[in-house]
Amino acid sequence: MGTLGGIISDTQTELPVVDLRGLNQSKLHTKAWDIAQRELIRALQSYGGVELIYDQVEPEIRDGLLDRAVPELFAENVATDRPKPPPLPYHGVYMYREGFPYFSIQLANLNSLASVEEYANTIWPQGNPYFSNVVWNYAVYMQELIRMIHRMILEGLGLGHKYESFIKSLANSIRLSKYHDDISSNETKVALPPHKDPNYLSIIDQRKMDGLEVEGSDGKWLRVSPMPNSFIVLLGEAMMAWSNGRLKASNHRVQMDVSKERYVVIYGSLPSQSNDLVSSPMELTDKEHPTMYKPFKYYDYLKFRFSNEEDTHKDTLKAFCGA
Ligand SMILES: O=C(O)CCC(=O)C(=O)O
Ligand SMILES: [Fe+2]
User: Fold this and answer.
1) What is the pLDDT of residues 218-240, one digit of tens each?
2) Containing domain of residue 269, as a range?
3) Is any ligand 1 atom within 6 A of the Cβ of residue 214?
4) Cα angle at 277 between 276 and 278, to 5 degrees?
5) Which of 135, 162, 166, 192 has the fewest other C-beta atoms within 10 Å?
């Protein structure tokens, strides 16, 4: 344990760990940055996921979000007063999976404190400054981290010059999730079935309750048990397509004792609604890497994917836009 700026473990039983402590975008191309970038790419090529040690987020914000703001939100019965299904799958405010003790609230187009306040006002008519501030402060920290990861990915693929325009094309979202079933047995079971996220990247903060499992290249499930100062990052299908399959989308699931409550926060990057074409740059196609996916519109793919949810496509993205 403990190599600075590099990989700590990449055995087949654990997700690789990359240390980002001391790094930021003013440290581009220092030795530590280059090592971390290389190891990040390696992890995303073979697992589609990585544990990042990142200590820039104020502990009061992380604790406040997961220990207070999110539980208080779910205490408002947002999970039981289920409104109509959202107009766009994975994009409305409310999400759940039929038959699983999982419920999630997504705040899309997260671009200002006012956008969080607007949502908070729908739950608490007098507003809830604690909730709004903690969610927005967390989003600001995540924005910095997600930019750093995208920069490492683009540079690692030799496309650093596309970074600014890529970042401009992104939207961000935050999902607040709760897992719990009102049962007395302490049985461990699948609480969220295996899936790939459709977006570019997901940064998961689960803190005290484990449950996330990532499929390794040998098909075995790796139990993820992040350290208190780390985050789990998973690559989604849009990034796999953009990278022309050079990076892999992580297949993952949640397995846990659902008689206990588990809260999770996921910050994500995805194509913006006004410009949602996912098209792999031609630099990533050559003889050894023929085109894997035709350019596609992200929101069309979401509709396809979620209208085929019960379908048994082994690879939904390929079925939609495979070349
Ligand atoms: O709860 C977790 O750890 C991951 C949840 C997840 O994969 C999702 O909501 O897409
Ligand atoms: Fe997921």
Assistant:
1) 889 999 999 999 999 999 999 99
2) 7-282
3) no
4) 110
5) 162
CATH assignment at residue 122:
2.60.120.330
From the CA of 191, give the closest atom in ligand 1: 1
Asked, for residue 314, whether it belongs to a domain, the answer is no
Q: Quote the number of domains for the chain.
A: 1
In a domain, 255, yes or no: yes
* Main-chain dihedrals φ then ψ at residue 152, nearest 5 degrees: -65, -40
Give domain status of residue 300, yes or no.
no
Residue with CA closest to ligand 1 atom 4: 212
> Residue 53: which residues within 8 A CB-CB, separation 6 or more?
17, 18, 19, 20, 21, 227, 229, 230
- What pTM, to 2 d.p., does this model score? 0.93
Q: How far is the CA of 236 from the centre of ligand 2 (A)?
A: 8
Look at residue 38 and tell me if it is in a domain: yes
DSSP code for 68: I
| ipTM for this model | 0.99
